[in-house]
Amino acid sequence: MDFFAPRMSRFKPSPSQIASARVRELQGQGRDIVKLTAGEPDFPTPDHAKAAAIEVMDRNEIHYTPINGTLEMRKAVQAKFKRDNNLDYELDQIAVGSGTKQVLFNALMATVGAGDEVIVPAPFWASYPDMVLLAGGEPVIVQAGQNNQFKMRPKQLDEAIGAKTKWLIFSSPSNPTGATYTRDELRALADVLLGHPHVHVLCDDVYEHLRFDGREFGTLAEIEPKLYDRTVTCNGVSKAYSMTGWRVGFAGGPKEIIANLSKMQSQSTAGVSAVSQAAAVAALTGPQELVAERTADLQRRRDILFEKLSAAEGLNCDLPEGAMYIFCSCAGAIGKTAPDGRAIETDTDFTMYLLDSVGVAVVQGVAYGLSPYFRASFVAPEEDLLRGGDLIRQACAALT
Ligand code: PLP
């Protein structure tokens, strides 16, 4: 008899872990690896957020916290939703968890059961389908290709919806493509959803502030108020404020759903650390200029890497509209042969070739549900972006 529960075989460890293991192995051999794999901003946590955390520790307010977040935190989230998204949530419509990830996880675990379907546009953040599978449901993948800037078309959404559809999980800007839906594009998706009142929407807005070239932001509950009663709007402090390690995320949504998210959390991690919540309150309510300054710096780094990748033979990418990644096609490299004789047949072959031959780490597209692509993060020092880009170009040129 297998010792492990059947749910453990419903999902696989992330394929990006294979690359991470190889990176560690090569580094262990003394190889210098240029890592273009970061999934988090490299700026420090804002000083005022750190100061708020220290203050809470000094006051010894480091005990258990309410499951659904401290009152200060829920008030800060309430004000954030109003300020940034023009969304009104009562305090009992707000949940706070250990990162956006936990809030999404709670929402799926609390609502999805056997036979339930969840629509996940691809390329996707790898956790979405696995979370759905873990909850016992079925992810329904909708391919949003490069020919439509990696955006799901309204018709595709309409066709994917069935009687068993429980949720659409939606993220804009997206990981891994940076695709950022315009308000008109969101309006068109909202129109489809209006025709299917049984479908709920899990909006993952964690990259809300990481938008480039002045692109606008919209979230579905705000774009279409009629969706408000069936949308859970999720967000967190990780990406906007460079606070990934503090583990604070939050959601606003219908009272009953939010109560069940908290119920789910009550038997796992319970309330988020008081120290982290105090830092998050300071980040959400403090000066916001720094968010735009940091995003401008990311945009500058995006441009550096984009220029390099665009010059590489066999690669084809578009300028990302948001987030922190370039999702680049390596179709032109597939079918070629490396100098050491290995055949490049998949995007995993290609990324392993980059790693072994020139020491550049990126993540293969298959991890995000679309091949043959790779994700290159531009959260890296400028010299690494320049050097990594040149090395990728060299590696591509060496294929025959
Ligand atoms: N949603 C997306 C699309 C992400 O890419 C990530 C992290 O990479 C998360 C959620 C998790 O964010 P958090 O750190 O708030 O849990």
Description:
- With 400 residues, the chain is α/β, with parallel strands linked by helices.
- The chain folds into two domains: 6-44 and 290-397, Aspartate Aminotransferase, domain 1 (Alpha-Beta Complex), CATH 3.90.1150; 63-286, Type I PLP-dependent aspartate aminotransferase-like (Major domain) (Aspartate Aminotransferase, domain 2, 3-Layer(aba) Sandwich).
- 40% of the residues lie in helices and 14% in strands.
- The chain is built from 13 helices and twelve strands.
- The protein has helices at residues 16-28, 47-58, 71-85, 99-111, 127-134, 154-160, 183-194, 220-223, 255-266, 274-285, 289-310, 347-358, 382-397, and strands spanning 34-35, 94-97, 117-122, 138-143, 165-171, 200-204, 231-236, 249-252, 325-329, 360-361, 363-364, 373-377.
- It has a seven-stranded mixed β-sheet, with helices on both faces.
- The longest helix is centred in the last third of the chain and has 22 residues, at 289-310.
- The N and C termini lie far apart (50 Å).
- Bound molecules: pyridoxal-5'-phosphate.
- Pyridoxal-5'-phosphate binds at residues 39, 99-101, 125, 171, 175, 204, 206, 236, 238, 244, 249.
